[in-house]
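Narrative of activities, Objective 1.

The group set out to show that a structural description can be obtained from nothing but a protein's sequence at a throughput compatible with the screening campaign. Below is one input-output pair from the validation batch, recorded exactly as produced.
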Amino acid sequence: MVAFKAKIQTYLDTFSFIPIITPDLAEVRALAHQLHTKGKIWQGEIFGWQAEYHPERSVPPLDSKMTFTPADFCIGESGIWFFSLMWEHGKDQEPLEFLDDHSIVNRLVFEQEKIFA
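Output recorded for this entry:
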């Protein structure tokens, strides 16, 4: 897990900076691959974030040239931190990845501060 500051819009013209913790992407990928191997729908909380997995379906997506609906996994909250995997080329191929971390400002370093000298 890594701690960051994220810039979040709280009102139309106001932003707040909040600390967030994100998981190591290698651990997220490992979990997603375990779920993909099982091939069953899953939804829950992991690494402190909401996440879900949907297996491949033979029905194509609406208004798509694809011949099937790819398996997918996602974790996080759009606009704050979000990571997804999609097996667009088939369930036996490597998934495509998408990371939305544009709200991440910097990595936090936790240090003890002396309030009184």
